[in-house]
Amino acid sequence: MGRTTLLIAVAILIVFLWMFVPYNFLNQHLPWQQDPEQQEQAASPPRSKSPGKALSAKVEVPYRKEEGEITFRLSDLKEKLRIDYEYDAQEGILTIRQGTVQLTMLREAPVLNRNGIYLPVEASPIIRDKEIRIPAVVVEEGLGRQVEVREEYALIEQNASVPALAETRRPKLPKGDPEGLIDYLSFLQTPIQGAQVSTKDSHLPGAERPYRNGVHEGLDYYSWTSRISIDSRTPVLSVADGVVVRADHDYQEMSEAERNRYLQIGAQNGGQTPQYILDKMRGRSVWIQHKKGVLSRYCHLSRIDDDIVVGKKVKQGEVIGYVGNSGTSQGVKGLDSGMHLHLDLFIYDQWLWDDFTPAERRHILRRVLDR
Ligand SMILES: [Zn+2]
Predict the structure, then answer these.
(1) pLDDT tens per residue across span 86-102
(2) CA dist 265 → 124, 282, 301 (Å)
């Protein structure tokens, strides 16, 4: 090959490279072609507020104010933050996933669950035909990402502080072992001074509830079946130390027609009342998150103490409110009959009673609560 041929070949190669290798590629890979602004950014990355935390870029996400609250469209968050979500329209349950973090929210209910534990956050998803929105507080508290609100959009951390949130270690749950469950729940005590677990089977967890084609989730304390007289002056006590995660101070009683409409939807759900309808049937409620994943829910209350607010730490035996009949058939009619406390217990958001016979359920509840 002559020298001229070699020169021509080299010239063709240079022209070829110039024409076909994308400019961006060169721009990114050849340091002398970077523009000065980019170089400066690379030299001093944005500073994180907490020293131990990984540096995190921020992405712009559009927001909308709904009733004075900043809200985001879930499909936008999915695209920009690489989270996943799923909405069960029948149950009204929204599940949001981000790595090992799983959040659950319930339609028309102000509760936020993360990996089985309820957070002291008042937030409900906004469900519409074509979109689902969540309040900014869910992104901040639930997903552990800072949100900075600007005029046109919000800046959200691209990388979440996942390790801090991904607490998934749990004590072993005593499945099908009555004595094990008694031991697990041994830090609880009665929600009503002097009352005992009901003598009637229909007041226990798992009892059938034909009016809504479902099953009773918790334990009812009515007058006399619980040994003492119970009415709207009966104080309800926290079963253990814990944090208030729900307190329905603004509860408005349903009309009878509304309640019947909900029951009708419930009865059509193939044998189990949807979660969001069950939530309405519980009336004015207080939920308290305790240690070991235990959640206690106090339902049908007539009144909640003023200082029982979301985020408050309560002591075992502290008065949280008073027995009532809110959310019940008598309550929506404005009657003062049917006063009772409905107490639910869950461990890591799981119903406890599947593995136990009715006799075992009563035995467990008596041992745990009758003190
Ligand atoms: Zn009940």
Answers:
(1) 999 999 999 999 988 99
(2) 21, 16, 24
pLDDT score recorded for residue 352:
92
Give the model confidence (pLDDT) of 135-168 as tens digits: 999 999 999 999 999 999 999 998 776 555 556 6
Residue linked to tokens 């329209």 = 89
Å from CA of 113 to ligand 1 middle: 22
Ligand 1 mean position, distance from CA 161 (Å): 40
> Cα of 77 to ligand 1 centre, how many Å?
38
Domains and CATH numbers, the chain: 58-165 (3.30.457.10), 178-369 (2.70.70.10)
Instruction: Give me ligand 1 centre to Cα 211, in Å.
Output: 13
Q: What is the pTM of this model?
A: 0.83
Report residue 361's pLDDT band, with 50, 70 and 90 as the boundaries: very high
- Own/partner contacts of 11-15, CB < 8 Å, gap of 24 or more, are none
Q: Please report, as a single letter, which amino acid is at residue 209.
A: R
CA of 344 to the centre of ligand 1 (A): 8
pLDDT value of position 47: 40
pLDDT value of position 160: 72
